[in-house]
């Protein structure tokens, strides 16, 4: 099925739900990618800087914690531009460790660019890209006898509902052998004001990021959203550790989609859910690891303890 068809089906399903929603994966068209790069550079958005600090200052300690005595594989889920991972790979190459880097993504174009950039900076890196979705690729990895370090960084696990996060980690665990490792990035619970600011910046870049979803639907699905009739809103619940982001309909309006030949009613003040960003406590991390068949081998935090890259071993 084409990406365009999936987009149409997912939007139709989301807008026919009692609580309208847009899957957050649709943030990332070309314009969305550019806006997210701006978000990562905002003074309020601590997440990217915090995890980068962990890799820069504690990359050697992460490598020290790897027990592998033979050739192994580094399998990265959702590698992006590979900027954080590059620091870790550099340290492994410096130590002349015997490994293959296997980034995984559904887009061959993304992987092609990643491979080119990695080899430009790390010409001795052995890299084998894995193109496709996780559900098809992960099961095939279990039959490979090499020990593996799986990477799931950038607090991506925080975009899942708790039950979905557990199911996703369990899917990774099912593709692993005993002794394999998973390094997972998680944003930690902290002063609620800091989190509120990170998702509602003064410059309005996060608002633009969300409103770009409407632009994308106008362009790709023939919708006729009036962007001035919607406003961005986000809210952090510190008890649950959930940041929920929404687009608010400022008036009663009907939006037509030519790609579906269908219209949807949006009532005044009705919310469209766009993203969940979950923040974790130490207890929640330990519980998630235990329930999915891991134990926490070691944790690596930035100096302010805003973020953790938690190293888990498959039992």
Automatic annotation (TrEMBL):
Pfam families, per database record: Methyltransf_33
BP term (GO), one: methylation
Assigned keywords, A-Z: Methyltransferase, Transferase
Transmembrane segments annotated in the record for this chain: none
GO MF annotation terms: methyltransferase activity
InterPro entries: EgtD, EgtD_Methyltrsf_superfamily, MeTrfase_dom, MeTrfase_EgtD-like, SAM-dependent_MTases_sf
Superkingdom as given in the UniProt entry: Bacteria
Annotated ranges, domain Histidine-specific methyltransferase SAM-dependent: 8-313
Designated name of the protein: Dimethylhistidine N-methyltransferase
Species, as recorded: Persicobacter diffluens
């Amino acid at each position: 099925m084409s990406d365009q068809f999936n987009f149409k089906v997912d939007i139709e399903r989301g807008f026919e739900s009692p609580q309208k929603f847009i899957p957050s994966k649709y943030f990332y068209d070309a314009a969305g990618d550019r806006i997210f790069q701006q978000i990562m550079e905002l003074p309020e958005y601590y997440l990217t800087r915090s995890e980068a600090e962990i890799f820069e200052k504690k990359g050697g300690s992460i490598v020290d914690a790897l027990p592998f005595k033979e050739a192994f594989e580094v399998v990265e889920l959702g590698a992006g531009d590979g900027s954080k991972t590059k620091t870790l790979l550099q340290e492994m190459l410096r130590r002349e460790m015997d490994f293959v880097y296997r980034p995984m993504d559904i887009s061959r174009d993304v992987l092609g660019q990643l491979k080119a950039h990695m080899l430009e900076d790390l010409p001795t890196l052995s890299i084998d890209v894995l193109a496709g979705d996780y559900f098809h690729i992960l099961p095939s990895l279990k039959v490979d006898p090499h020990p593996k370090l799986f990477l799931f960084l950038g607090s991506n696990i925080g975009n899942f509902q708790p039950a979905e996060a557990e199911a996703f980690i369990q899917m990774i665990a099912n593709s692993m052998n005993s002794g394999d490792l998973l390094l997972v990035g998680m944003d930690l619970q902290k002063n609620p004001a800091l989190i509120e600011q990170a998702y509602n910046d003064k410059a309005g870049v996060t608002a633009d990021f969300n409103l770009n979803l409407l632009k994308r639907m106008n362009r790709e699905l023939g919708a006729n959203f009036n962007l001035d009739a919607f406003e961005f809103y986000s809210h952090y619940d510190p008890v649950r550790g959930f940041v929920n982001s929404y687009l608010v309909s400022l008036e009663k309006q009907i939006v037509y989609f030519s790609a579906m030949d269908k219209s949807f009613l949006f009532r005044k003040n009705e919310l469209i859910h766009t993203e969940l960003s979950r923040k974790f406590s130490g207890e929640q991390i330990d519980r998630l690891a235990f329930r999915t068949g891991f134990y926490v081998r070691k944790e690596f935090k930035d100096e302010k303890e805003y973020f953790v890259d938690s190293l888990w071993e498959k039992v």
